[in-house]
Amino acid sequence: MARGCAALTLALLLPLCPWAHAQPLAAPTQVRFVAQTLQHVLHWEPAEDAPRDALYNVEYRLYGSGNWMPAPKCRVISEFSCDLTNETLEPTKRYYAQVRAVSGNRTSAWTRTNAFSPREATLRLAGVHLSVTGNTIHVSVQLPLRVGNVTVSYTELYKHSRQYLVLVNRTSDHEQVQYVCTTETIVISDLSWGEQYCVRLQPRIISRPNPGIWTEEKCISIPVKDEKMELISTIVGIALFIFVALVLLGTLFICMYIRRPMGTPAVLKSLIKQSTLWAEQEHFSGGGMDISTVRSLSMCPKDTAQRARLDSSSEMALPVLDEDCMVHGDQECLLQSARLGEPGLPEAAATGR
């Protein structure tokens, strides 16, 4: 009877002992990063035999560092995901994360991810902005920008080899055209007037295998063609072309006129000639001799030789002309030559010498 009471008492007390159910919990499974550009979310699955009241703790650390840090927003949570974007923003770093289950005083082992880099995330865009000019659509790519502990832009993550696949769909007949662009400003021209077009984009990185997510499709309409405005634009364009051509031709003619050799005008030649004659007259009139006298005396050697032959019978020795008469032709020599043959001239000449 005493043994039966002891066994019954032990059976009643066993559930109250903490060590009786202290077996560990099963660890979470499939712990991994599900990341899009600047959105890094850790996901996991509960173990098959995990209790319904199980909670979870998350930690992370840098690659190469041995210190695990608790995620501030993911301590003792019931969800199966944790946003670690702010903790894993550095583009050049690699990160690890780990999760364990907690139920009462029981905990599971940690389950860790593989190394993760922000540049491995699936590519996404923040949005697309469309505008129309005539029959041309202007597409402005809106890139994601994260402002948290660190501000990181899409262009910082992927500085080179950015591409955008552009799909343009005409709604009237669903005709589609694809373009590949490398800039964030895209121009789609020569579209049909009066039609509606829908546009969506997919980002790509040529040097990386990252998949890209298509943006939400946006539509915009091309206005109906205005014939009057087109005619006015054509006329204005032609007039502008003619004006520019005339300005260029006028400039060319002016340059040619300025650079061509210029002859002396006839009026200027006449004035120069008259000025020369006046100067000669003034010069010789001042010396008491006119132009006719100068011209007659310019032949002084010939006249002197003739006078010598005529006077040879008188046996008068005529003076020899100074060499300066032929070289310099100065006025004094000319006067001496003019006086040859006059009475008393030899004596004067001799006296002068």
Key terms:
4-stranded antiparallel β-sheet; 5-stranded antiparallel β-sheet; disordered C terminus; single chain; 4 domains; disordered N terminus; alpha+beta; Immunoglobulin-like; 353 residues; elongated
Your description of this structure?
The chain folds into four domains: 22-120, Sandwich (Immunoglobulin-like); 127-221, Immunoglobulins (Immunoglobulin-like, Sandwich); 227-260; 269-343, no CATH class. The chain is 31% helix and 27% strand. It has helices at 2-13, 154-157, 227-259, 266-286, 291-297, 300-310, 324-327, 331-338, 345-352, and strands at 29-36, 39-45, 55-62, 69-70, 81-83, 95-103, 106-107, 111-112, 127-133, 136-142, 145-147, 151-153, 162-170, 175-181, 185-188, 196-205, 218-221. The strands form five sheets. Strands 3, 4, 6, 7 and 8 form a five-stranded antiparallel β-sheet that branches. Strands 14-13-16-17 form a four-stranded antiparallel β-sheet, with no helix packed on it. A three-stranded antiparallel β-sheet has the order 1-2-5, with no helix packed on it.
